[in-house]
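Page 42, continued from yesterday. The earlier attempt failed because a stray header line got pasted into the input along with the sequence. Redoing it now with the clean sequence only.
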Amino acid sequence: MKIARGTEAVVSEAEDGPGVAAPARTIPYAYSRDHGILLRAMDGERAAIAMRAGADPTALLEVRR
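This time it went through. C-alpha cells are written below.
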C-alpha cells in the first residue's frame, strides 16, 4: 500500500520488506507546476516525461533521484 502526500511516501513493510522504501511513481503536483515537468507514463522502470518550453533541465535530476 502506498500513500503519497507532498514529497513523502509511505510503503507497507509487507510489500518491500522492513526499512526498504520503494521509489515513488508520481511527481508531486506543486513540483510539477513549479518546474514545468509532467510524468506522462511509466513502463516498468522507464518514465516518459514532458517538459514545458523554457523549463530548467536540471529539475530532471531531482525527478530521477
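Notes: The chain has three helices and four strands.
Reminder to self: strip header lines before submitting.
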